[in-house]
Specification:
229 residues; mainly alpha; two-stranded antiparallel ribbon; 6 helices
């Protein structure tokens, strides 16, 4: 009977195992060297020596994070302040543009100059600058048509609401008060259902005064638009 163990490793097996162990040790050593090199570079970047321990490195890292957070907060503050300044400039520009357009419309309307300031107080809250850069009534302006320019608003609404702003020769009701041309004739077709034309309506009010137009509409049995009431 043979004393040889069939499961005993052969010299070739021993050699393979030895090489595998050596390769593992080499890999482990390389990993440690890489980690040591990385740690050294980190420590050096923080101004620490090669022998700095983990606590010192962690403390410097925390300081760096705090400084970065502070810088980020400072940049955010500068950004917010810049946005606020821009919004202020845009608001001031819009206000000046609205005022300029309102003044021009008032002067062209023939209204009495002494009523300019009262007119501006009345009109300013109703107007803004739209997305196209036009001065027009705001979409949420109370008791007024949205999206009309200052000149149209003056003729369609101001003359009806503030007739005393205008000389008698051009004030609301001063022209056309006898109803000539308004007795249900074609001149008020633009107020009839299905034929509404806002531009023509404004022109009629501008030419004859809101009171005369309202009277003509009532005599003709037509509804008076909300903006003329």
């Amino acid at each position: 009977m043979s004393d040889t163990n069939p499961n005993a490793p052969t010299p070739e097996d021993v050699e393979k195992l030895t090489k595998a162990l050596e390769a593992e040790r080499a890999e482990h050593k390389a990993t440690k060297e890489a980690a040591r090199g990385f740690r050294t570079r980190i420590a050096s970047g923080f101004g620490l020596g090669d022998d700095a321990n983990e606590d010192a490195i962690s403390a410097r890292l925390a300081d760096t994070e705090a400084a970065l957070a502070a810088r980020t907060a400072s940049i955010a503050k500068e950004r917010d302040e810049a946005r606020a300044r821009l919004a202020e400039v845009e608001s001031r520009w819009a206000s000046e543009k609205v005022d300029s357009a309102l003044r021009a419309a008032f002067e062209k309307s023939g209204a009495k100059p002494e009523h300019l300031e009262d007119f501006l107080i009345l009109a300013r809250p109703l107007f803004g600058v739209d997305e196209k850069g036009r001065v027009a009534t705001k979409s949420d302006a109370p008791d007024t048509l949205p999206g009309i320019d200052p000149s149209a608003w003056v003729h369609s609404e101001l003359k009806a609401k503030r007739a005393h702003y205008f000389p008698l020769s051009s004030g609301g009701g001063a022209k056309g008060t006898s109803g000539i041309g308004y007795v249900g004739g074609p001149s008020i077709d633009c107020f009839k259902p299905g034929k509404h034309n806002l531009t023509e309506q404004f022109a009629l009010v501008s030419a004859h005064g809101a009171s005369a137009v309202r009277s003509a509409l009532q005599r003709a049995g037509l509804q008076v638009p909300g903006w003329m009431r």
